[in-house]
Write a structure and sequence with these properties.
The chain has 2 helices and 6 strands. The chain is mainly beta and 141 residues long. Strands 1-5-6-3-2-4 form a 6-stranded antiparallel sheet. The N and C termini lie far apart (79 Å).
Length: 141
């Protein structure tokens, strides 16, 4: 009978396969473009992934990865502060699978120096201009 259910429920899972070599560093092959996404791993650690794919497949993969973004650079993860190569994996199953390189944040956070500009006269004494509100804070030195 065509309408019988299978004896056991069919379980569809995403397959993640690790690959030994990076797949997507630098420029993509002709007919492909670079895409990237930042998402958290299973251990709540953010990764940046970059891949090369045919632009006509974007909507298919964007359905599964909402952060997927077309890149203007050949190294989108590095540009976004994820310089450390982690691994190359294949996400998906069957005909809907894609191989991508994953990158991590630096081991130690990069320290950004705050620029302090001294001005000759105070800027914020008295009332604020129309449409502005006064805010304040006490900084520890």
């Amino acid at each position: 009978d065509l309408y019988n259910l299978p004896d056991e429920p069919v379980k569809v899972e995403e397959e993640v396969v690790k690959v030994a070599e990076p797949c997507c560093q630098g420029k993509c092959q002709v007919g492909e473009q670079k895409y990237w996404s930042i998402a958290k791993s299973l251990f709540d650690r953010p990764h940046c992934g970059e891949c090369c794919m045919n632009p006509s497949e974007y909507s298919l993969y964007h359905f599964f990865e909402k952060n997927l973004t077309k890149s203007m650079e050949d190294n989108p993860c590095d540009v976004r502060g994820y310089p450390k190569y982690d691994s190359t994996v294949t996400h998906g199953f069957g005909l809907v699978s894609i191989t991508l390189d994953l990158y991590n944040l630096p081991v130690e956070p990069v320290k950004v120096e705050e620029e302090v500009v001294k001005v000759a006269e105070p800027c914020c004494q008295g009332k604020c201009q129309v449409g502005e509100q006064k805010y304040w804070s006490i900084a520890k030195s």
